Amino acid sequence: MGRDEGFELVFAGGAASAAEGEDAVVVHPTDRKGPGGHPIYADDTGIVQAEISDRGEVRMIASGGHQQPASGVEARPVIQP
Fold first, then answer.
1. What is the pLDDT of residue 44?
2. Cα torsion through 69, 2, 34, 64, rounded to 10
3. How far apart are CA 76 and CA 78, in angstroms?
4. Residue 30 near residue 46 (C-beta atoms within 8 A)
5. What are the backbone dihedrals phi and psi of residue 22, each rounded to the nearest 5 degrees, phi first?
6. Cα–Cα distance between 25 and 75 in angstroms, integer?
7. 3-class DSSP state for residue 11?
8. Per mean pLDDT, which range of 13-17, 46-50, 60-64, 65-69 is the poorest?
9. Helix, strand, or coil here: 61?
10. For the chain, what are the domain ranges?
11. Which of 59, 58, 63, 70 is nearest to 13 (CA)?
12. Which residue(s) pair with 39 in the sheet?
């Protein structure tokens, strides 16, 4: 899995999921590591942050107060052409 390309995080069960099939956001690597020692990825705004293991396991990281990190998030590799 190429770590420099980034991932598409797919959220299950959200309002957009029911209406349009999926709710997803693309995240890119940062220079930080999460509590599990794996790289942290963030979207362009820095609001959506996730630690993604080398096995594709996702741990959402709260980037501000009053956030409730989602569970059941899937990471799909984004391959740059």
1. 95
2. -40
3. 6
4. no
5. -150, 150
6. 10
7. strand
8. 13-17
9. strand
10. 7-11+21-77
11. 70
12. 33
Residue 19 has pLDDT above 70, yes or no: no
Length reported for the chain: 81
d(CA 68, CA 38): 21
* The pair of three-digit structure tokens given for residue 65, joined into one six-digit string: 């107060």
CA 36 – CA 44 distance, rounded (Å): 23
**Whole-number pLDDT of residue 22:** 74
- The set of residues, in sequence order, having a beta carbon less than 8 Å from that of 81 and lying 6+ positions away, is none
One-letter amino acid identity for 24?
A
Tokens of 38: 């794996």
Residue 48 to residue 55: CA distance in whole angstroms: 20
Distance CA 70, CA 81 (A): 30
